[in-house]
TrEMBL record, chain A:
Major localization class: other
Reactions accelerated catalytically: 4 Fe(II)-[cytochrome c] + O2 + 8 H(+)(in) = 4 Fe(III)-[cytochrome c] + 2 H2O + 4 H(+)(out)
Native source species: Aliicoccus persicus
InterPro entries (alphabetical): CcO_II-like_C (IPR002429), Copper_CuA (IPR001505), Cupredoxin (IPR008972), NosZ/Cyto_c_oxidase_sub2 (IPR051403)
Location of the protein in the cell: Cell envelope
UniProt key word Metal-binding: yes
Protein name per UniProt: Cytochrome aa3 subunit 2
UniProt keyword list: Copper, Metal-binding
Protein task: Subunits I and II form the functional core of the enzyme complex. Electrons originating in cytochrome c are transferred via heme a and Cu(A) to the binuclear center formed by heme a3 and Cu(B).
Cytochrome oxidase subunit II copper A binding domain sequence ranges: 63-157
Domain of life: Bacteria
Origin organism lineage: Bacteria, Bacillati, Bacillota, Bacilli, Bacillales
UniProtKB/TrEMBL annotation, chain B:
One GO cellular component term: membrane
SUPFAM superfamilies: Cytochrome c oxidase subunit I-like
GO biological process: aerobic respiration
Membrane-crossing residue ranges in chain numbering: 20-43, 55-78, 99-120, 140-164, 185-209, 221-245, 257-279, 291-314, 340-359, 379-402, 414-436, 464-485, 520-541
Protein name: Cytochrome c oxidase subunit 1
Species: Aliicoccus persicus
Amino acid sequence: MHKYEKIWLSFGTVSLAVFLLILLVSALHGGHSPAASGIETIHPEHVLDDERFANPGLYESDDPDYDYDLYFVASAFRYDPAEVEIPVGSRVKVSVATTDVIHGFQITGTNVNFMVEPSLVSNYTYTFNHPGEYLVLCNEYCGIGHTDMTSIVKVVE
Amino acid sequence: MANTVREKIGVVNAKDSKLVLAHMIFVIIALALGGTAGLIQVLERSGYFELPSWISYYQVLTLHGVVLALVLTTFFIMGFQFAAISRVCGGLTNTERRIGWIGFFMYATATVVAAIMILLNEATVLYTFYAPLQAHVIYYIALAVLVVGTWVSATAQLMSYFRWKRQHKGQKSPLLSYMVAINNVMWYICTIGVATSVLFMLIPWSVGWVETVNVSLSRTLFWYFGHALVYFWLLPAYMVWYAVLPKVIGTLGFSDNLARMSFMLFLFFSIPVGIHHQLTEPGIDAFWKSVQIVLTFMVVIPSLMTAFSMFAVFETYGRQQGAKGLVDWFKKLPWTDSRFVLPFIGMLFFIPGGIGGIINASGQMNQMVHNTIWIVGHFHITVGTPVVLTYFGAMMFLLPHITGRQLTPALNKMGLFFAYTWALGMTIMSAAMHFIGLTGAPRRSNFSEYGGHPIAETWQTYQIVQAVGGTFLFIGIMIGIVLFIRLMTSEKTGIVEEFPVATFMDENAPVTRFVENWKFLVLVTVFLVLVAYTVPIYQMLTEYTVGAKGFKLW
């Protein structure tokens, strides 16, 4: 092997190792593991019969790890609730289920961005530190009214 | 000497040329159709144009994706690989060629049928056809036939490669034929996923034999294929970079062994990585997502090997031309040869493209950009520029070569204009996409003001910029179409354009152990796939999930 090739490949391998190390530390120490991971099933035709999704919205939580549970129902072509208020600084576990096809749940301006698939509940816990009106949209094509699917998250003092 | 044999048979014979030409005609039609669809999309999304009521944005988007990502690429790849195999292995036998034509007619028919279903608005499910959006069964059947057709053609190419090896025992196989074999073996293994999903899940479900479909499983099988598809596009471009470009600029390739080694690594790390497209979805444990992230990053090694090798070739050539300083060899490169400039511009785009890829594969940053238009910007500067500009660079010599013509100075100049217009349009369009993607603008979405929300207002200026970039790109595509037609129809001069194939600095060194041991290659590939996929798929099969009924929401 050529000397420069060796130097170049060593540089590449080392930077690869550094990248992976950063990801690992961030995942384990920082708690940034991929959103919506894990398996929590739900019957896709009976989402609205589930007590969490019958009246979706913000509920105080008993769990010490976060302050509120926030439930959303995604369906073509709307989110329920269409608007929700969250006290600033609160840690919220967002759970979303779909009654029909795949949707992409995204609260713009935050890290809340995950897929919602039939038969499964998607969760992600996030702290809303900055007041404002955040646009919730669907970022996975779900049909002709795809861009009509919106909601507003108001983070208030 | 293997070399002298290869020099003597250095043309694609007339019968094989016809097969290659048939493929290339589809490439040109796909470029025209897909390019037009792309223009319509950027104009619609600028907010200044409305589509007529008889066609929807998503129909056009489905057409754009299928025609460019599946059709243009597949026809170029199969056509180019037939040309390459024929060029270096002494022509196809009648049987091999006949099998090639059968494969061609399968995917040609399937393409036409799928396009009709899209235009009839029966398959507005985009090229990823995620269930439970349910297309017409004929669309799924067409996609299945398209894939099976590629298996048939790939088999003809592999037969040719193994025949050459049998006839030349103890000799090193021609590099291009080895690369074709790697790409085809990778293709067989990865398409098993999508074929399983289409044949055993989506077709029975869309006919009504079964009522529901397991959504997670069908998506996972799709992406088991879907990321390897990216490398299936990329490897033929690398074939041109490694095995053609050194000859084009007039020097030796850096290392035949390095090229083979990098292709081996691409085979290993192309498939067990598909879940990095599913990092933000439910139904898969964080641990298995992480395993596939690590496997995804392994591609850094063969990518850096390729970059090193290419620039080693360029510098060597520049120094042969008398360059002395640290970087003045760069100026000596053949900047007026379109066969070099088209792929070279592609390589430049691959630098931000590769960095973007590292960002996307990093689990945490992925969540920022997942399904935003950043991703669209990303794959337009990876597949949409490095890959296709290299294809077009190859077509500059391939089209005249197979039709018995020459690349004239006028057409060469036109090729340069084509490259620059494409680069300009793509820079503008993809930059705008990257910027607004970071603030959350979604991909796969028609123009919307999102109820007048301020963040959506900030996207609108950039969406106009996208349309400007897309318009330049479209002009480039028009130049390209005229150029390709002229390359096949200009006057014959009696001189046939060369199909350049490089020799290497280590031409006479033996192949590194194991690199061409197919049992070893397939075993390692399958082993890595099993490591990455056994548990996630087992969980999807055994976990109590109710399947989803089909929906037609367009």
